Fold Aldo/keto reductase.
Amino acid sequence: MQYTRLGDTGLIVSRLAFGAMTFGSGEGAFASVYKVDQDGAARLVAQALDAGINFFNTADAYAGGQSEAMLGKALGSHRQDVAIATKVGMRTGEALVHAGLSRRHILASAEGSLRRLGTDYIDVYLVHRIDPYTPLEETLEALDFLVRQGKVRYVGYSNWPAWLAAKAVGLQREHGWERFRANEMYYSLVGRDLEHEVVPFALDAGVGITVWSPLAGGFLSGKYTREDPEGGGGRLTGFDFLPFDRERGYAVVDALREIAAVHGATPAQVALAWLLSRPHVASILVGASRESQLADNLGTADLVLTAEEIRGLDELTEPLAIYPNWFNAKVYDGAVQDALRPGHC
């Protein structure tokens, strides 16, 4: 297993983290996601621990809180040996106050998460989404309060635009509040939007990036093809949430298959290995509903792609530049950089 620091903190986490979103049961769109019972959760967590994973991720909204409760029970006595991240902000009840990032909801949700996880502290507490109806200062002060109480060790965000996260960090520094140290964002070979603004901000602010849905909802596992776009009834047939160009995606899967064949690996392992090659990525969430699926994902830890293979995947999936990024790239004056380059005379 590979390990790294989470952002600029001293928290050491495994670069493959375990995502517990599949734990529990549910109906509707999430029926294809929530499908692991407590016995299955215990086996998957034990398998992850044996592989060296020490970073586990869940949310209060997953399966109505079942995911947190099942993860806490599965970890049991190992809780003190691992870091747990959970999230707040999604709707957890019918009343209007049971959602969002108000002080009331954050503090109540933290207590609920602590109870379900069976722990007295949360290692990484993430706001799950933006809340346009709550003042940003209220949200940030509530998170700081939890840290000062000792109920949370580090705070962060998920699914926020870079400008809002930057504004938040500025306010945190101004008021002496606990600063964002981590984020959890979608990133994959068919979804590289993160690279435009989020990655540069995270690197500058010392925020550790954890990746959710690194296989684009399972699309990059290789089971979805032009001939079988439904992947034999895979998860995307019931939970098709991520927008991306399917035709371009098939070309990416074809490339993953070619590289996988060279390494005796699977397309999923190659897709995950590409993410591990990104220096700005701290950890990748790998979830599973079966032990064989988790074993395949864990095999990524031993897969090292060549520079040529990484470059090929980079070029195949390079996102179109957005304004003003493309403008600044075109008018960039490299004279000073050249002058300061080591060895330049």
User: Anything to note?
Assistant: The domain at 3-340 is CATH 3.20.20.100 (TIM Barrel). The chain has a mean pLDDT of 91.
